[in-house]
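This section describes the prediction task in plain terms. A model, or a person checking by hand, is given the sequence of a single protein chain and must write out its three-dimensional structure as a string of tokens. No templates, partner chains or ligands are provided. The sample shown here is typical of the held-out split.
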Amino acid sequence: MKSSRSFPFLLLLLIVGQSTLLKAQHQSGLLFKRILSENNTIAKGLSQNSIYAILQDSDGFMWIGTWDGLNKYNGYQFTIYNNETGLSNETIRTLYQDGHKLWIGTENGLNTLDLETAQAKVYFSEKNDSTSLSNNWVNHIFKDHLGRIWICTASGLNEYIPETDQFKQIFNSNYSNPLRSNHFNMICQDSLNNYWIATNYGLIQYQTENRRLTRYFNKPNDPKSLPDNMVNQVVCDPSGKIWVGTKNGLALLDPATGLFSATYYNCAFGSQLGGVEIKSLLFENNQGLWVGTGGQGLYYISHLNPTVTHYAHDNNNLYSLSDNRVQSIYIDQHNVIWAGTFNGLNKIDRNAPKFKLGRNNPEEPNSLLNNAVWDFLEISPGIIWMATDKGISVFDKHNRTYHNIDAAHNPHQLPVYLTRSLYLDAQDVVWIGTRDNGLYRYDRREGKTSHFQHIEIDSTSLSNDYVLKVIRDKQGQLWVATENGLNKMQEKSARFRRYFQNDRKMGSIAHNYIYDLFIDRQGKLWVATADGLMSYHPENDGFTVFRLPKALLKDSLSQNNKFFSINEDKQGMFWIGTRGGGLVCFDPSNASFTLFDESDGLPGNLIYGAIQDHQGNYWATSNWGISRINYRDKSVLNYDVNDGLQGNEFNLNAIMLASDGEVYVGGMNGFNSFYPEEIVQNKRPPAVRITAFRKFNVIQPVKLKSGDQVKLRYDDNYFSFEFAALDFRNPQKNKFRYMLENYDDGWIERNAEKRFAEYARVKPGNYTFRVVASNCDGYWNNEGISIQIVISPPWWANRIFQFAAAVLVIAAVFLSIQLRIRVLHRKHENEKKYLSLEKQMFELEQKALQLQMNPHFLFNSLNSIQGFVVNNDIDNAIHYLSKFSQLMRRTLSNSRESFIPLSDEIQALELYLDIEKLRFVDKFDYFIRIDPAIDEGFLEIPPMILQPYVENAVIHGLMHSPRKGHLLIEFTLVGDDLLCVVQDDGIGREKAAEIRSQSGIERVSQGMTITGERLEILNQYSNQRYEVKVIDLTDKAGQPKGTRVEIIMHYKE
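The expected answer:
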């Protein structure tokens, strides 16, 4: 009910409050991003610039209907559909999606495009066939509340009958037509499911409850009637009112009374909107109505605060509407507004960064004097002076007007060319530095101007005529920075004390090129030069120089220490823009430097200037736009020309924080101003889609969705994927990561220019291709999309062939073994007399080895090797056998010693765990941590103490866990003892015992028992502390989550 009151009020306001609306119309602040057929920022532009229809499909792709073809847009390039791809006609009038079918209305036939197969089907009007279309000119396609599809044509209304794939014609030229016109332009339904039909001769209402037709026509002498009988558009608002766009204006119908409200006034042109043709209408989320006209641009009628805002093409503003003939309007899933005009497609993002733009407009006297903006000065709240190449622009931010001081308007003889710096002192004097004309002093109270220049024969004159900065210190002394020396001015005598670089003099300046001057909160003067930062000491009239330490230098010394600008934050830290070192944070309390550069997210290492806003965040200008550095986590967000900036390149030190928190930045194409708190982030992750799949660089006719499987032959293994992130706000800043699991070592980063992944000579096997993406503000869709890839092996690598080959190899080996056995048997008979002595020795050695290694492990290892051989996995068999043989050698070597280096023990554990990981694929990961204070080569411990506990953790703790487990082995010095920890996150001892009980296996680990006995013997033998603690781990709910074994042992070096 609230909405029904606001719109009539808006009508009254528009009629009697024209002056109020004029103000609102010129405060649009929206950024129109143009997409044209000749657009060079997109790989392939639109097929044609005249846009009739716009639609976003359920997958997130945009479809653009033009006068010459249908375009599918993924944010980076267009795919064009026309006669060659099966469409009946290239002039696309309307679009509608129903499931996997895209309906396409043209000027010569109705088409459907299967979005899965890209196959087109055509429907034509056939003479004397009432089941075909009534006319081939299709204006609109609509699906009603009952799921019926209606087609408005130039000669009748048609209902599509899906059961027969035919049509039912209604009000065609063969019927006695009560509507007076067969030309149907549009159809919609209101909240009561009544139909509203726009025709070339009036508006029609069809009431579903009583099947009643009501006609609305223009009556020349009735202001409450329809403005014109040519009705192009009709939409229903949430309050039940009907908005009607005609050839002669916009009208609002109250169905309860059948009366039309007064038409709107066009405040921008001073005439009634009744004289404007309405080409398109669209409600935006119940907040307002967008109105596209046939020649006067775009209007937005706000439902929340009754105002009308007008947007029109401006030849001097690239971010204005591309053309004033707006033929279609659409809102996508991310609330980006698309406006199709007679000359291009426009994107309008209400949530885009709110960078206000100021530029020179040659046709507008009230505009910026010149686009090259070098410095800002806030004379008083809201009054900003700007230094430009052609003089000074005085900007009143309250009403966005300019007062320009140039050659034609300069009563006080201020500089009018190449102004570079501005400074206001406490005496209300403005100091103006120029590029080649020295320094100006302008006394605002007396209206007098003084001029100071470099004089070659006068050593007390200004050292150089290029003045980059002026500042007054705490003692009232004026300092002037030039490109050749620093100057201290004696104002009474108008003389200057010059400071130059002098390597033979202590305390001289670091370099003659002075970029910036700054007075910190303690009143100390700081100087940024081409070779370091300086602080001034008045007690000895000298300087201390600070340069980046060598460890922080990126390239040559002179480039990194070229300091452009200085600014102090609320914490007393200095933020310095540099030539090649990025953004430098300097702590004056300890003279330390911290760098923020490309590796931290900045777009480049050249920073012109930086300030801290009222929220504590830092803003830095560069050759690649503006960057925001979050003061909490130092995360970086970058903005460029696509976000509405004057350009990507900014000018040296042209950045200012105004008293109300607004930031001003200047470049060569004007200036931007913004309130940082209004720069909101796009937090909605983008949808990720595969846009093309290629084999040998040939696109395959398949649409891939997440979870789909691609089967390839072994010789088809050169393939590639193209992908897109369907966030259209600033798609060039979207980023990607992809990985082919079981092939790539990790994620591979890609930007929007390289949205593809190529693979060649991939071995047969099963793989998963994954790709994830972020939007322009770095919010990631980490789920992304995944495609299963199966590459089949050649016939000689199939299992049957491999099994037969393996049988032959085994048979040959068996025969060789049998022959060898016979030879050994004969030899054995000759050596039998020596067996009694060797038997005893063998039994002793066997017992010793059994104490060191569990026999089950040996058998399982051999079985694993056998399994790899049978499966013809020669690489893994060789790898496994190599690890196994190294472990056996290490075990035999260690068993001969009473104490071994810790490094030998760790190597044996790593060999054992690597073997178990090969045996139990993806069941666990292990980590070995060693106290940095431990010297692994000199510290010695008894051998094979940890192995039984490690084996027990793997076999009984991790192998039964339903998830992938983790094993931690840690060595720490505790006084004179070594603490060894074996910790797993498996099922715990109690659950392991239960599993063994259920399986009928009740054995106790002999390895752990023998180890315990060994430790007891060592305690008695050495009088040292050797003990074992077993701790059951639980989670917060008291459920088992693993076991921790702590072994404390004496070590020796």
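For orientation: The chain is about 15% helix and 40% strand.
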